[in-house]
Design goal:
56% helix, 315 residues, 15 helices, 3 strands, DNA polymerase, domain 1, three-stranded antiparallel sheet
Length: 315
């Protein structure tokens, strides 16, 4: 039904399609990113059509009005900023391609977004989650391996389900992950995660779920399979994590990235070098990783306030 609804929409201008093609072919943007850009640009183009404003006549004042309209709809600053990114990209692209004389978005600033701290579980809470998959069935063995790998390596859920058998070198305790923009990195795998992967890949795990005939290309190489014998999806992995979170009383604390955040926070808590954590997580910028140092500092202050008599009562 979604596809049918989209078919009723007016086609996007050729300029927008050209931008999306350029982002795909030249910049290597992921399919999910392109879909999000298409969705936000469709909203923007519809807004321009309502005002009878052609793309090549948009001025800075129009973009300011557009931002004002997004805010008037009650969107949070982060949502406004996200919606504005593809719009600015479109106008910059048209200016750099020489299709318009100036870039109307060059001086339109993104809304300031308060930088929240990543939520991380305590080490005790992670321990409860790791112990949650109980039993020896193939699905339980898979789930145990998934959770161990997510916490032990700091992989994104999308990177986890994207793993293929050729990406694993368990003898060397290493795996190859493909992050944002298909950037490749080599990640060490801790002993518990290696042990869990060996069990999953052994006779009582993955081979039990592997079908006699693979339905889709690439499924045969997938590390993690669903119960139908296909590559486990990101949503499928998230549903599994959420089920175990409910079992151990962590339902309100779990998000798709929470084990990644917990991995980074706990490493820094135990003295890891921030550059090493940056490399492990595949962050392009050290500033992204530095957010986790704020988490550790906040925890330090919390412990200090709760434990030191001078912190609680003053002099």
């Amino acid at each position: 039904m979604v596809g049918a609804a989209e078919d009723l929409e007016p086609p996007l201008p050729m300029e927008v399609e050209d931008l999306l093609m350029w982002l795909t072919a030249e910049r290597g943007r992921a399919a999910n990113t392109i879909s999000a850009y298409r969705r936000d640009l469709r909203t923007y183009v519809a807004w321009l059509r309502e005002r009878g404003r052609p793309l090549n006549e948009v001025a800075e004042a129009d973009l300011v009005d557009y931002v004002g309209g997004l805010r008037a709809r009650g969107l949070a600053p982060a949502s406004v900023a996200r919606a504005l990114v593809p719009v600015r990209s479109l106008h910059r692209f048209l200016a750099e391609e020489g299709r318009v004389a100036t870039d109307p978005g060059a001086h339109v600033e993104l809304p300031k977004v308060p930088r929240g701290l990543p939520k991380a579980l305590t080490e005790a809470e992670v321990g409860r989650l790791l112990d949650a998959p109980a039993g020896d069935g193939p699905a339980v063995v898979r789930d145990r391996a998934m959770i161990e790998v997510l916490y032990g390596t700091g992989l994104r859920v999308s990177e986890l389900v994207g793993l293929s058998l050729g990406d694993l070198d368990l003898d060397a305790a290493l795996l190859r992950a493909f992050g944002k923009g298909s950037k490749e990195r080599i990640v060490p795998v801790g002993t518990p995660a290696v042990r869990a992967l060996v069990a999953w890949l052994g006779p009582g795990g993955r081979p039990v779920l592997a079908p006699a005939q693979w339905q889709r290309r690439g499924d045969a190489e997938a590390v993690f399979l669903n119960l139908r014998g296909g590559r486990l999806s990101r949503q499928g992995a998230w549903d599994i994590l959420r089920r175990y979170a409910r079992l151990v009383g962590l339902e309100g604390k779990l998000s798709p990235h929470v084990l990644r955040h917990s991995c980074a926070t706990h490493m820094l808590d135990h003295g890891a070098d921030i550059r090493a954590v940056q490399e492990l997580l595949g962050h392009a910028s050290i500033s992204t990783t530095q957010v986790y140092t704020l988490v550790s500092t906040e925890r330090l202050w919390e412990v200090y306030r709760n434990a030191h008599p001078r912190a609680r009562h003053g002099r």
